[in-house]
Design brief:
This protein has about 800 residues and is of the alpha+beta class. About 25% of the residues lie in helices and about 25% in strands. Strands 3, 10, 16, 17, 18, 19, 20, 21, 22, 23 and 24 form an eleven-stranded antiparallel β-sheet that branches. Strands 25, 26, 27, 28, 29, 30, 31 and 34 form an eight-stranded antiparallel β-sheet that branches. Bound molecules: zinc ion. Zinc ion binds next to helix 12.
């Protein structure tokens, strides 16, 4: 996303404004509950501390270095987010060198943003695009100011925000940002300065979405109907959750029931049909968006790290608004699974999309050309302390079980808390409550939904069996009479220094199954223990994972392995593994000791198979195909989609897939590997097999991809052979078929060939501007014709 134009112009034209501090009265309403800020929480936790340290000592310098060395990155949002995350680490760990590095980087950014000729680079429409990075610039500036007291970045941010206030609004320019974010930033700026104009502009951007007063960006940008009328989680997932988080801010700040109701409906829709068991969202790679209800492919599943980040933030805000533990439940699930998987244990490799199954084609990247996700990991891990505790009046909330010390201001006293635990590996939590003055207040302890047999709210998943175990909660060894309400047990009593709360959460290994409508998970179970979702990965299971069968009767056990992946809980059990019999005979089954690791920890040991959802019966297992006699496979030099070089391309895309002998389930089968091409108009696109020696062939069978979206059945195709001199068409019997969900077989006069080619003319699919189109352009700016085809399998005999 290009940012130069907007930031450049305002800095050039207006110069920095003075920050005048809080001038107006605070809002009349706000969240009824406040997070205890991470600056008042010291985490000392066996699970999280190593990750937070890797974040501070590896990820932050790693990303800052990349930003400083790459001139282009000075103008894009990932750098601003990195500055923001780095600033948070400074708040807990003053670091003169890091602060100096930030100064240099910020000076460079501001200097570079002043263009030589602003008029040439700026048009009013470019502002709409630039609102997204501008939002991140503002957030970074606030964090940098709060961390260091330095105003240079904040002054620039205020200048930008003030300019936006003069341009956009009810009687001014009617547009919405084409990627939400600035709404969150403007609310933060309002909180910092107390100036209503920033809140009003945030509200304008939210309310304007879906109105007829501007050219609509469509459902992909949640711009199809006004937000208060929306009931479904739709469109680009990161954009969606940033919008929903901002709407939650607005519901709190304006006490608006319509917004609140819309959020409740959207959340229900997301959680009951569109959320992975890991808490990940955004099932569909095209537009990185929500799928239809129950459309949750495991292998092609997108579940972008940024979306997990935004979803955690949104659910945290919903908890603060409602004090309902189910939001904290989901937040916990996201943090331990769908979010944490986004970064390697060392902190220097990152996932963009987070699939739940891998054939072994996918791993974390060191760098990609849209590095939006890594700095979101940095921002969240640096501020993890903010998600653990909350307060409201004389109520204190313990949301997450993380060994830590916290200082919490209640209405009548200040309380220091000491939480000790080995969660998530063990269910024992001990909290020492030390009020400055003894007296009555309430400590609300979250009782996770999974202890009550609820995987996630909404009924998308359920546990197999009833083995919930029993929660025990005591104060100074005495049982508590209070009932659980909205996911919390509130302990109201006269507290004095040294009182001890002890919570024991039962942690049996559980099997999870999905609703029948989730086609991909039919006949499969996932494993969990406490908040952790497990997966089978190749290094622990004799090199494969997709061939494992987990029968319902298999006993499962948990153990802690200090030596593995930095110290993790594993799940073990006697399962079956399928393998090929001798001489291509039927599949055979042999006993195997399953070792399942936490999903967040996979892909730290190289590429290979991984599966979260394991088949309960042998027919769901996949055995690697017998390697076929290998021809040399070639393709036309243009039109091939870039593969794996950028890190976020689809892991299912593999030229070798067309010859792997796997029987597809259908043309839209997202559990298979396939190969796609996007040739330019007027260019023949082809794939070729070159034989080791001239071979007589007389038939071809091809299975086309048709994903119902962009990659479609071809318009036409034909077979050519190289008989030793030139490429010639074969003499076919019948016609070239273009049917989906089956092999299209054609026979031809036998011919001795050195090589055979399949030459394809793709369908041309027109997409209208503003309607959302091909995957690499968000709502598209001009009409395009999309030409893409794909092959799942191609056999020649
Ligand atoms: Zn991202």
């Amino acid at each position: 996303m290009k940012t130069r134009s907007l930031l450049a112009l305002v800095l050039f034209a207006f110069g920095p404004a003075a920050f005048t501090g809080r001038t107006d009265p605070p809002p009349r309403t706000d969240y009824p509950t406040e997070a205890v800020p991470f600056t008042q929480v010291r985490i000392d936790d066996a699970f999280w501390s190593p990750r937070i340290e890797a974040n501070r000592l590896v990820s932050v310098p790693y990303l800052l270095k990349a930003s400083a060395e790459n001139g282009q990155l000075l103008e894009v949002e990932p750098t601003y987010k990195t500055i923001e995350g780095a600033a948070y680490t400074l708040m807990l760990h003053p670091d003169a060198r890091l602060e100096a590095d930030l100064d240099v980087l910020i000076d460079k950014i501001i200097a570079r943003l002043i263009p030589r000729n602003p008029a040439a680079t700026w048009t009013e429409t470019s502002w709409d695009r630039d609102l997204y990075p501008a939002g991140h610039f503002i957030e970074a500036a606030i964090a940098h100011y709060q961390a260091t007291g330095k105003k240079k970045m904040l002054d620039a941010a205020l200048t930008i925000a003030d300019r936006l206030v003069t341009v956009y609004g009810p009687a001014k320019r009617h547009r919405v940002p084409n990627h939400e974010e600035i709404e969150i930033a403007l609310v933060r700026l309002f909180r910092l300065t107390g100036q209503d104009k920033y809140l009003e502009l945030a509200k304008f951007f939210i309310d304007e979405r879906g109105q007829d007063s501007h050219p609509k960006l469509g459902e992909n940008a949640q711009d199809h109907i006004p937000v208060v009328e929306q009931s479904e989680a739709v469109g680009h997932c990161v954009m969606a959750v940033y919008l929903y988080a901002a709407m939650t801010d607005m519901a709190a700040l304006t006490n608006d029931a319509a917004t609140r109701n819309a959020l409740a409906r959207i959340w229900d829709d997301a959680v009951s049909g569109k959320t992975y068991v890991t808490g990940g969202i955004g099932a569909i790679r095209f537009h990185e968006r929500f799928g239809a209800r129950y459309e949750l492919p495991n292998q092609s599943g997108w579940a972008e790290t940024c979306a997990a980040y935004g979803n955690a933030l949104w659910n945290h805000r919903l908890f603060l608004l409602t004090r309902d533990g189910r939001y904290a439940d989901l937040m916990e699930r996201i943090l331990y699974n769908g979010f944490l998987v986004g970064v390697s244990l060392k902190g220097d490799r990152f996932f963009y999309q987070n699939p739940l199954k891998s054939f072994g084609h996918y791993e974390r990247f060191a760098w990609i050309n849209v590095p939006c996700c890594p700095p979101n990991v940095v921002r969240l891990l640096a501020t993890l302390g903010s998600y653990i505790y909350a307060r409201s009046g004389n109520d204190l909330y313990i949301n997450l079980f993380v060994a830590s010390r916290a200082d919490v201001n209640l209405d009548t006293t200040r309380v220091s808390l000491v939480q000790e635990t080995r969660y998530p590996w063990e269910g024992a939590v001990r909290v020492t409550v030390n009020p400055e003055r003894p007296g009555p207040f309430t400590v609300n302890v979250r009782i996770p939904g999974w202890t009550r047999g609820q995987v996630m709210p909404g009924g998308l998943y359920r546990f197999l069996g009833q083995d919930n175990g029993k929660v025990r909660l005591t104060v100074n060894g005495q049982g508590i009479a209070a009932e659980e309400e909205k996911g919390f047990i509130g302990i109201k009593r006269d507290w004095k220094r040294g009182d001890v709360i002890e919570l024991q959460l039962p942690m049996p290994v559980r099997r999870i199954v999905a609703r029948d409508e989730v086609r991909e998970n039919a006949g499969r179970a996932a494993l969990s223990r406490g908040p952790i979702v497990y997966c089978a990965e190749w290094p622990d299971n004799a090199g494969t994972a997709l061939n494992l069968v987990l029968p319902d009767e298999a006993n499962l056990a948990a153990e802690f392995r200090r030596d593995l992946l930095g110290g993790i809980g594993i799940v073990t059990g006697e399962v079956a593994a399928l393998k090929r019999g001798p001489n291509a005979g039927p599949l055979e089954s042999e006993p195997r000791r399953l070792v399942a690791i936490p999903y967040y920890a996979w892909a730290n040991r190289g590429r290979g198979e991984m599966a979260v959802w394991l088949p309960r019966r042998p027919d769901g297992a996949r055995v690697s195909p017998i390697p076929l006699p290998e021809p040399v496979i070639r393709l036309s030099s243009f039109g091939a989609l870039e593969k794996r070089q950028t890190g976020y391309n689809d892991q299912s895309d593999d030229i070798g897939a067309i010859h792997d002998g796997v029987e597809p389930l259908g043309s839209a089968d997202e559990s298979s590997l396939y190969f796609r091409m996007k040739p330019p108009a007027g260019q023949p696109a082809w794939v070729e097999y070159e034989f080791k020696s001239p071979t007589v062939i007389s038939s071809s069978e091809v299975y086309w991809v048709d994903d119902r979206r962009f990659c479609r059945l071809p318009a036409a195709w034909k077979i050519l052979v190289d008989d030793g001199g030139s490429w010639k068409p074969v003499v076919i019997h019948g016609a070239y078929g273009v049917e989906k969900d089956r092999f299209n077989r054609v026979t031809f006069d036998p011919v001795k060939a050195r090589a055979v080619r399949i030459e394809v003319e793709p369908q041309e699919i027109p997409y209208q501007a503003g309607r959302g189109g091909p995957p690499d352009a968000m709502p598209i700016k001009e009409d395009v014709v999309w030409r893409e085809f794909g092959i799942i399998e191609w056999r020649v005999r």
